[in-house]
Design a protein that fits this description.
Number of helices of chain A: 14
Number of domains of chain B: 2
Low-confidence stretches of chain A: 1-34
Number of strands of chain A: 0
Structural class of chain A: mainly alpha
CATH superfamily of the largest domain in chain B: MetI-like
Largest sheet of chain A: none
Radius of gyration of chain B: 25 Å
Radius of gyration of chain A: 25 Å
Shape of chain A: globular
Distance between the termini of chain A: 32 Å
Largest sheet of chain B: none
Helix content of chain B: over 70%
Largest interface: A-B, 124 and 124 residues
Oligomer: heterodimer
Amino acid sequence: MATDKPSQQVHQQAIPEAQGMAVAASGPAVDPDARPRSIGGIGLDLLTIAYFAFALFPIIWILMLSFKSQDQLFTTYFRFDPTLDSYKAVLGLSSTTESVPFMKYFLNSLIASFGAVAVSLLVGVPAAYAFARYQFKGANDMLFTLLSFRFAPELMVIIPVYVIYQKIGLFDRHLGLIWVYQLITLPLIVWILRSYFQDLTPELEQSAMLDGYNRWQALVKVVVPLVKPGIAAAALLAFIFAWNSFIFPFILTGSNAQTVTVGALAFMGGAKPRYNVTAAAALISLIPPLVLALSIQRYLVRGLTFGAVKG
Amino acid sequence: MSVATANPPGSEQDGYVSPARRAWRPYFLVLPALLLTIGILYPFVQGVIYSFQNLKATRPNPEFVGFRNYQRILTDNDFWHAAWVTAKFAIGATAVETLLGVGVALLLARNSKVSSFLERFLILPLMIAPIIATIMWRLMMQPSVGILNYILKPIGLGGIAWTDTPAMAMFSVILIDVWIYTPFVALLVLAGLRSLPSAPFEAAAVEGAGPWFTFRNLTLPMLAPYILVAVIFRFMDSLKVFDVIWGLTQGGPGDALIAIQPKAYQEAISFSNFSTGQTYMVILWAIVYLTTRLLISVLGRAQARAAGV
């Protein structure tokens, strides 16, 4: 189709590059390191490094800031004597005056996120299986209702929930947070797991039943173990999003059930803001999601798109 | 594909199951989730009802006012200001994230030593809570301890006031959003790039097509569905922006960053005008819904075209 293009000779050398882009990931067909390194390749590597410098620098700098002492906070940039003072302040180990009960917030975040994921798994796994395996009336309506939760503006639910919680006493309670977190965790778990169940052929259960299992045993002993990595990934991703949620706890909690995302903001205020302590608080609160995320990296694309893109 | 029909009657090992019972099985499995969904749906419906009432903290027994809330808000400059702020943010952030994200994906798909090493760090900004990421950037933008102006000084850009003017505040909040969500676009597009069939590329190479020609006529059209999925998610989420704006300036300076959701927050929570705030949210929900429908139909066409390649 392009044989009569005048530029073909000029571009001939670049073809393995374009080709490698598409196929290299699928196998050892193109070994990138076997290619002689070109000026262009180095330039592209430098561009890649430039982006990652932008992406990673804030995390590295916040880490540095969190180890600075109050004395050196305003006078130094990169060279300073590291201390653990900020961490002691966040963990409530130092006797400074203005104390924010950060560890309590941390525990609150753990309880609310863990509780929300547990509830979603309990009701979501059977539902996802039913959606993947049966055609039944109302299935699509319910699936799209769940999906619409993902796209609905949070306040649309929070305002009425705020009014209701004030009345029935769920305001500033863990249970109240776990309930609204279902908006985040349930659609995610149902949609992702549905796509995992769909990947398995129904013949699996059929042959298990021929082997003498009943349907329930086939599900528990054959199907679920196969989707276990998917369940784990969906649960961890749901946990991360619940943990990272800000607007729900911001509006629906006070001093009792407040989470780290709201609590970290408290360090920014005050008459004499302690930026190093803020940095330490920010770092402590991003550790759980980061650690979990690294463990499910392989499943992330599917999770982030509700199964729309199978990475 | 349905197992209930694929399974001949009587093949069940747990004895005879009547057709009626089999038909009920999916409902039984879905029931707990259904109850939970209804439980979440209830406040949704309640919220829509609020938008037709005049509920505030000082008026606990509201009356129905018909469309008066909508009429008042849609003729109010505050709403159009919030809508304009939202549009600027959503379009600006989505555009930059898409372009940068596709670029990063193409760089990573080269699988060079450098890019393979760096790829494992791609998701880090995305997994940090947006509010925490915003706090981090606020620290970096802070005039006395912040590092940004110190780094930019050598290239003659010291002393930037990151959030003092409306234009700079918008720039800064988009910058933070770009930092958080570019990996999202890159991750999706990278998955797309790696799932492309190799045959068309081999054919193009045999035909002597140049890299730009290949990219424009093969890679990009086949990648379009992945890019669109990323755009849909990003655009929808940025229409509902709250965390980054609230974390950076609480909507300031003045009302420069008061997008629709922060505006609804002010009305409903700060001023306890629940019905007014809720009306803002129903309008935003309608905007999000209509935009999603539009983008999904575009996606459908792109998928059809990509399948035809």
